[in-house]
Write a structure and sequence with these properties.
It is a single chain. About 75% of the residues lie in helices and about 0% in strands. It has about 120 residues and is mostly helical. The protein has one domain. Helix 1 runs antiparallel to helix 5 and helix 4 packs antiparallel against helix 5.
């Protein structure tokens, strides 16, 4: 897979999840066994907004040369997704999220691997 193809897929994943958390956070998170209430709802929407922003950054960076800014975009996303894997596993193991959380863990693991792979490519 080419880097630009991977970045388009990553941007679409970020956009889909970001829009879901932004516009229907309670319903979306209920799918994972999480009940959002009170201040958690606007915080979830902030997460959704950041994922939509990440989708734009990643999508617009897809054709950049592998240097400077793109390397930083790849590095930041690799680290974000690796940390999200750890948090996801913790949440599942502690009963904070139901077994559907494994899907998120898998998505973050694949994204972490992809971003890490392209981050470490030679120019």
């Amino acid at each position: 897979m080419k880097r630009s193809q991977f970045l388009i897929i990553a941007a679409l994943v970020y956009a889909v999840f970001g829009l879901a958390v932004l516009f229907v956070p309670v319903e979306f998170m209920r799918y994972f066994g999480v009940n959002l209430a009170g201040a958690a709802v606007p915080l979830a929407r902030v997460l959704g907004a950041s994922l939509v922003g990440a989708a734009v950054i990643v999508g617009l960076s897809r054709d950049d040369a592998l240097k400077g800014t793109l390397k930083n975009v790849l590095a930041g996303n690799a680290i974000y997704n690796a940390i999200a894997v750890i948090i996801g596993v913790y949440a599942i193991q502690n009963g904070l999220v139901n077994s559907y959380g494994w899907g998120h863990v898998l998505i973050h693991a694949l994204l972490a691997a992809g971003f890490g792979y392209f981050w470490n490519q030679k120019r």
